[in-house]
Amino acid sequence: MQIITTIKEMQAFSKKLKSEGKSIGFVPTMGALHEGHFSLVNSSINENDVTVVSIFVNPAQFGPNEDFNKYPKDHKGDMEKISSLNIGAVFLPEVVEIYPKGFSTFLYVGGIGGILCGVSRRDHFNGVATVVTKLFNIVMPDRAYFGQKDYQQTVVIKKLVRELGFGIDIVVCPIVREEDGLAMSSRNTYLSDEERKAALILHKALEYGKMLMLSGREENTTSIKLKMETLIKSDPLAAIEYIEIVGTEYLEKIDEVTTPSVICLAVKIGSTRLIDNIVVK
Ligand code: AMP
After folding, report:
1. pLDDT 10s digits, 206-251
2. Residues designated as active site
3. What's the pTM?
4. What is the CB neighbour count within 10 angstroms for residue 108?
């Protein structure tokens, strides 16, 4: 496994593979790797000749009052975990390599970036689209792997790839959960023991919402969202940012109970903002 830190070397690595007719699978991450990341990596390993994983905490997708500076970093642990897998290269650039002095070319994803998580994280998806575009140009993959955990992100990336004509297959992998249902996330390390228990309310509420959607007893999504809200509010550590029921492809709000749809939510547990979702079909 090669550890590559510069754009030039990464492009040379990928160009060589391409000249040999090899397919490249790409898994972009922000590090502090867990089983959720590894499920993406394993899918890529199974479906491509060579897999490239990037580890880059992208400042452009964090707002001024967010956790960029304290985002969990575990380079040593990441390298140990990753070195046992059949990965061709890890791309590990410094911030100045991706955003050199004077960098000013940013993508704007439009309205899709202003709903759900985009309401509180105004430029988040523009920052994601910018770095993913740059990483695609550097790694030149045939396929790129993203987790359903960040549902809105997968919709934004698929749209980006379609609209800018990247010619990269976007593969969305299912959410990996802890045994008790909590969706794995690098941010779970922020939770105290008490908060960790409280965080289970996200998955419980999603399962409850899904059950109501499929029960045949509910006609509109407003009453389902209210019932989910009541459940979440029963936990004093939980503060709801949003609960929405939207279409799976375009994330448009759904009023009447219809499937397929996806229930998305963001909830703060103490000071930690967690997101989760469940597809109903
Ligand atoms: P991150 O490092 O949090 O930016 O995540 C990198 C990629 O891993 C993204 O495509 C995430 O959606 C995906 N991912 C993170 N957590 C999970 C999970 N629990 N299950 C599946 N994919 C995940």
Report:
1. 999 999 999 999 999 999 999 999 999 999 999 999 999 999 999 9
2. 37
3. 0.98
4. 10
